[in-house]
Amino acid sequence: MGLTIGVDIGGTKIAAGVVDESGAILETSTVPTPPTPEGVVDAIAAAVRTVGAGSSAEAVGIGAAGYVDDKRATVLFAPNIKWRHEALKDKIEQRVGMSVVVENDANAAAWGEYRFGAGRGHDDVVCITLGTGLGGGIILGGRLHRGRFGVAGEFGHIRMVPDGLLCGCGSQGCWEQYASGRALVRYARQRAAADPDRARTLLELGDGTAEGIEGRHVSEAARAGDPVAVDSFRELARWAGAGLADLASLFDPSAFIVGGGVSDEGDLVLEPIRKSFRRWLVGARYRPHAQVVAARLGGRAGLVGAADLARQG
Amino acid sequence: MGLTIGVDIGGTKIAAGVVDESGAILETSTVPTPPTPEGVVDAIAAAVRTVGAGSSAEAVGIGAAGYVDDKRATVLFAPNIKWRHEALKDKIEQRVGMSVVVENDANAAAWGEYRFGAGRGHDDVVCITLGTGLGGGIILGGRLHRGRFGVAGEFGHIRMVPDGLLCGCGSQGCWEQYASGRALVRYARQRAAADPDRARTLLELGDGTAEGIEGRHVSEAARAGDPVAVDSFRELARWAGAGLADLASLFDPSAFIVGGGVSDEGDLVLEPIRKSFRRWLVGARYRPHAQVVAARLGGRAGLVGAADLARQG
Amino acid sequence: MGLTIGVDIGGTKIAAGVVDESGAILETSTVPTPPTPEGVVDAIAAAVRTVGAGSSAEAVGIGAAGYVDDKRATVLFAPNIKWRHEALKDKIEQRVGMSVVVENDANAAAWGEYRFGAGRGHDDVVCITLGTGLGGGIILGGRLHRGRFGVAGEFGHIRMVPDGLLCGCGSQGCWEQYASGRALVRYARQRAAADPDRARTLLELGDGTAEGIEGRHVSEAARAGDPVAVDSFRELARWAGAGLADLASLFDPSAFIVGGGVSDEGDLVLEPIRKSFRRWLVGARYRPHAQVVAARLGGRAGLVGAADLARQG
Amino acid sequence: MGLTIGVDIGGTKIAAGVVDESGAILETSTVPTPPTPEGVVDAIAAAVRTVGAGSSAEAVGIGAAGYVDDKRATVLFAPNIKWRHEALKDKIEQRVGMSVVVENDANAAAWGEYRFGAGRGHDDVVCITLGTGLGGGIILGGRLHRGRFGVAGEFGHIRMVPDGLLCGCGSQGCWEQYASGRALVRYARQRAAADPDRARTLLELGDGTAEGIEGRHVSEAARAGDPVAVDSFRELARWAGAGLADLASLFDPSAFIVGGGVSDEGDLVLEPIRKSFRRWLVGARYRPHAQVVAARLGGRAGLVGAADLARQG
Known about the structure:
Four copies of one chain form a homotetramer. By secondary structure, chain A is α/β, with parallel strands linked by helices. Chain A has helices at residues 37-52, 88-96, 105-116, 181-194, 200-205, 215-223, 227-251, 267-280, 301-312; strands at residues 4-9, 13-19, 25-32, 59-64, 67-68, 75-78, 83-86, 99-104, 125-130, 134-140, 143-144, 255-259, 291-294. The first copy, chain A, has two domains: 4-111 and 300-312, ATPase, nucleotide binding domain (Nucleotidyltransferase, domain 5, 2-Layer Sandwich), CATH 3.30.420; 122-295, ATPase, nucleotide binding domain (Nucleotidyltransferase, domain 5, 2-Layer Sandwich). In chain A, the strands form three sheets. Chain A has a five-stranded mixed sheet. Chain A is globular, with a radius of gyration of 20 Å. Chains in contact: A-B, A-C, A-D, B-C, B-D, C-D. At the A-B interface, α7 of A face α7 of B. Chains A, B, C, D: One of its GO terms (cellular component) is cytoplasm. Chains A, B, C, D: Keywords: ATP-binding, Kinase, Nucleotide-binding, Transferase. Chains A, B, C, D: InterPro entries: ATPase_NBD (IPR043129), ROK (IPR000600), ROK_cs (IPR049874), ROK_glcA (IPR004654).
């Protein structure tokens, strides 16, 4: 199969793109994300038709946040779009006349990195995406591990702290409460509230209040060496690295790929993650272990990965 | 391939057995575990030769506690036997004249359960062994997942409690410190020390002191309904179930198999594990999920699994 | 001094009462709690004038939720009423023509129990109030310990879980997030959501949903032996008892008094608290230690205590 | 009363000193600490007689590690010397012919700092001693708070981490497992084992192994700016400061005094303690709060405090 189309459903826009066998995006079409569940379905179909018109694309891969069933056809539960048992594959196939594969968006991004990004040359790769929350994807023996019911790789919700922070999922102490963009902001706000003098630079980037601090302020301040921002990144990194050490004990991959907006800061966050990973890795002296590397495809990983999964069939 | 030989290396004895294609053990030979690393190698060879003599067995599978390399040939690190980079495959092949496969013992046991025990009919199975410590094995898509470096499935050392109990591995808060036979005894001793009146029955089974309480006392007392022993099993089960909920988020298997000595108590421990698993399972309302079942092969799982891995080649 | 007036400021009503030297309430006046900070001041004055008219009461004690300064005159911070540096003593004295003492409400309740309730005969008493939140009061050597700045005894906000649940105070892992009426409801809801079958009885008491479970449902179900409700009380009790063990290491009182709405369930909650207290009490074998007893004055403790503090001057 | 004698019982030596009303030590006598419980009693008596001969000292105060009863006469339990219900007051009075007061050693040191050191001018002071373990003393309203049974102020054993590190006291997660000299060494060893390259300087100070790192190496390396040693001090400080924030919620003193060997490093450890204290202090914006200051008397605090307690009678 030659060209395929990948779809990435974001909170503000939906992107569809024609992707070739080398993972290059040849053309894209973008539409705003509609507010209703059915509107999103329509918008996906429209974006695919627009970008696909005139191309020889033969199949579509869609990455969606949420649980996707083991047939890669139905979104069981999508927290943001409010899909419940949404038969997305059938609906889109009927409207665009191409075969469709639906995949969890973090899985699609992991697949993209594995095939065309930081995971090239590895057979066993575990990706974590430090975005607003924390997502992940698992490639074992060159295959995407989806789990028996299609819901493997929900890294964000393993319990890091018994009786810990409440999570939107209803559980407590979930990893994404401690290692994600949202956690980063919480760390910065708590520190700024407790010690406004020390956080002066950071506070000035926002509206002057702890509550007004946003993620981009923390990143900007950290790049300028602000101690509160740097401490906040380190706190996030401690949790991220400790969780990767757990994943090493479980999956034993040859590489961990760290993506998502938080990872855009590069070594500012990667180095403390590696430090924490080494500290908590069990048996480090007696075993070889995975590298921790930055993702390479940035925001394109999901679209490219979804397209490639459609190509694999 | 018809018959193969499986070897199980225990703390007190080494067992070798001839196993057929249905997983039945036709004959066994047992020798005491020698105190020296090289002595163990000799004893394995002797046991294999004894049981293999006169049989048509063609290959040997050895289950060993510790890290085994990705070629299934060398034991990188065995905490109890003090093997370090022990070329076990080569040594045994030279002495017994059959091809040898070395596998982590918990992996071997998991494979045994998958092929001939509680895992039959499942493709994606995660086993935990609640013995003195906590071990595990992973079968995904019908294949044993060994990891890139051969050390996947070290469940006992994922971190359940930040800044938690010290573990022999050098880390803190490892799962096996909270869910294992050793943990069970600690729970019982702590409770008996704090409240000797309530623990009277349990204390009488030992030497009357909290320190004198052993695992078998806790089991016996729990079967008789002793409140301290029952509480101790429940505490273990809370941690075991919470950990399985994490593994469900990661691996999404169709079944969890719980084996090891602690699981011999059956529903006394399985039911509270299931209760805790349900409580902490993320997204339980929106997704199908794994069953939690008891292992069926008991202490034979490792030997039978190792023999079958040798057959698979 | 003979008669004094005590004032209790609740979320829905403000009660003022004339109290004699034996702690008996001779007469009361109750008004609804107004919605504005200044309205509450007016209502207090009105209630005091009403109940004091015709009595020989000479002084007023007011119990207020929040931080009260070391002069017992100004409410520094009252989270519910939104007082900030409210000069309550001066305002009420001007309006009612009697001398006024302002005290933290949990301190007032502790003093009431110490003088006329479960604390009689003890010199060193620590009270915890398990209401919606968790409050406390400390009597050492027969004196109320207020602290240098008047804000001692904020038991609800000691950290029980590092990186634990967010608290309204801005910190994390505060004791009241784990041992309070609000925590009890959370435990019940989480358990009901995870296992609706087991929680059937409890769910039927409310609107059938986990979110519809209220504190009174948990109490009613627990009294009827419902397993989910009983488990929820036990979970609360584990945290309450563990915290009392900490307080024993710090204050070493002769008695702990447990009050507040949760304690109305008596031994249903007191016994598991004692069990947990014994389990976590340090050095229990080598030292005498405090009793854990139920409060006796119920909802009157605050009013009676405030009145008596006014008498002490 | 004019001169009194203070006694400090250390692990290697016992010191007795004549102390005047200003807290000055006029003369001292030191003997090695004998290995047997009764030997220690003899040695105390000998040291007191030696230093007291020719002085006009009239009373003796003895600081002892362990639980001391509420009559300040009997050591209920001394973990190191193996005293159990040792009637120390009577025995020493018989041998030296002076009245004797026995006090917990951390209480004595706190009293010394309160009277003649960093606590002068404060009425409500809480001291923590970061030595091998973590001890403490409480002065409220100018009086040493001993508790109903004489065992208040056992700060080292409040629970900072549920299910945390085992403590010699039999409990888990005790503060002194996270904030003490012993904890500091553990942090450094763990970090050095996990990342020997980064810890090169620190490792070279000892025998080159992680296990060979001692407290003095960590201090020396930290002063030289070694990152692993500095991180280890910061980790200790995070726990120390968080615990002080709890004590502020409970006791609300005007000053915290931090003593013990760890505090000898001054601002290297005090500044991160203050930072952590501010971060976790509840309600910091709405209330005045305690200063965190370094102890001033060093190792003399216990002897001087014991002598002054004897003077107070």
